[in-house]
Design brief:
The protein has helices at residues 13-32, 36-40, 50-69, 91-102, 107-124, 140-162, 170-187, 224-231, 237-242, and strands spanning 130-131, 138-139, 193-197, 201-205, 219-222, 246-249. By secondary structure, it is α+β, with helices and mostly antiparallel strands. β1 and β2 form a beta hairpin. It starts with 12 loop residues before the first helix and ends in a 14-residue tail after the last strand. The model has no long low-confidence stretch (mean pLDDT 92).
């Protein structure tokens, strides 16, 4: 008899909305404190400068409001946990859209406009609203979970590139960690390896003998930020192991062939 299909993780919609709003606010305040030299630095993401990365983060909120302004789609095609695998082909399109939407205005103005627009749009719609998106139609509730990934990942990018110290909202960090952990389990289903990302997530993955009790024979453990960097291609498996940011035990506890999940 095949194993029962795992029920998708549930997220508290009110907490996710609050986390997205709070993290965007953290970034807006942090960007406002960056000086010209910091804004001119390379972001580490292709040819983008830190200023262009900051503008892209403003576009994340701006595009959410724009999506909610369009007529709704009929039914969702994509869930939150499937979203990481649908993003790679759209990188160029998203970059171009961000440039067109945000060109010509100073960053403080971009953030004020985008934040206000996002707040109005979220107040007007419930989580059941289905957005018509390039990557596939999604409910607003699911799409907001993916916004925690975008915001947390790019906040970390900004901090590293600009030498900033923009805080990560705990609920946003938790949702980002959990979504990317669940995406790993979706990509490599099974129960032979236990991946622990305390204090937010534990998942089992990879086909093979299933662990049932006691200490699992194959364990991977790391912290949330290292996991997020691994899952999004900001660092690689070998480097994380060498720097002791990942602990892996057991002959199957090698995730290098599965990472990054998105880049």
């Amino acid at each position: 008899m095949p194993p029962a299909k795992k029920k998708p993780r549930a997220y508290d919609p009110a907490k996710i909305r609050a986390a997205v709003t709070a993290q965007f606010g953290h970034v807006a305040r942090g960007v406002a404190e960056l000086g010209p030299e910091q804004l001119a630095r390379p972001s580490g993401l292709g040819a983008w400068t830190v200023a262009e990365l900051a503008a892209h983060i403003a576009w994340i909120a701006d595009s959410l409001a724009a999506g909610l302004a369009r007529p709704p789609a009929a039914v969702p095609e994509l869930t939150a946990v499937e979203w990481p695998f649908a993003t790679a082909s759209l990188a160029g399109k998203i970059s171009e859209a961000a440039r067109e939407t945000l060109a010509g205005a100073p960053l403080p103005e971009l953030y004020e406009r985008a934040g206000a627009g996002m707040a109005r749009a979220l107040e007007a719609h419930t989580g059941a609203r289905v957005l018509d998106l390039w990557i596939g139609d999604m409910t607003l509730a699911d799409f907001l979970v993916t916004r925690t990934v975008e915001l947390v990942v790019h906040t970390d990018d900004l901090n590293r590139a600009a030498g900033a110290d923009i805080p990560l909202e705990r609920q946003a960090l938790a949702a980002c960690t959990r979504l990317l952990a669940d995406a790993l389990a979706l990509k490599a289903p099974g129960g032979s390896v236990e991946v622990r990302i305390p204090p937010f997530a534990v998942v089992q993955c990879i086909e093979g003998p299933r662990h049932t009790r006691g200490t699992p024979p194959n364990v991977v453990e790391t912290d949330p930020l290292t996991w997020i960097r691994l899952a999004t291609g900001r660092t690689d498996w070998a480097a994380a192991l060498d720097e002791a940011r990942v602990r892996a035990s057991g002959e199957r506890a090698d995730l290098s062939a599965l990472l990054p999940l998105m880049s």
